[in-house]
Description:
Blueprint lengths: L3 H16 L11 H11 L4 E2 L1 H8 L3 H13 L5 H16 L9 H4 L3 E2 H18 L11 H21 L7 H16 L2 H35 L1
Helix pairs in contact: 2-7, 4-5, 4-9, 5-8, 8-9, 8-10, 9-10
Amino acid sequence: xxxxxxxxxxxxxxxxxxxxxxxxxxxxxxxxxxxxxxxxxxxxxxxxxxxxxxxxxxxxxxxxxxxxxxxxxxxxxxxxxxxxxxxxxxxxxxxxxxxxxxxxxxxxxxxxxxxxxxxxxxxxxxxxxxxxxxxxxxxxxxxxxxxxxxxxxxxxxxxxxxxxxxxxxxxxxxxxxxxxxxxxxxxxxxxxxxxxxxxxxxxxxxxxxxxxxxxxxxxxxx
Length: 222
């Protein structure tokens, strides 16, 4: 028979278990958690894109898209990241279950310090966003994969071909939002991100048209 102290401890334990939720073993980790794991498990000197994809399994499309989009924000590697995003988008449109890149790219060593720098900036922001991002407005993401791939392809093309300084930032951020919505299965965020993508594409189209008209006008002066 339990004494009063034992009953109190049991009740306290029950109360504590209701206050502190535990994650289900089948729960899908947030993007920030997966990025932190990549950072913690990365080899000390360098890693490869193939190593990253091997750690991501079925979520490789969304996570590789997010990583490349974050990398594309940096001016020095935005074109390379944009080209890789274009390959990724083509494979999404083709309905592939996971991304595949040329072996020369997947085996190319990347300094681990670059990953550390990226994580230091990205993880805190993702953790803040994940407080309001969660699965909602159930969307058949496998069916919408081709639509997402098409949008990402257009944004990546804008990112790579627009010669204006810092013009890579906005398309890269929108692709990152799309990737985050894809990872978190948040249909509401996906709609917001796709709407932002359409605005970026319209603005880019208007800029191209104005540039063409300006070039034509200058040509007439000669």
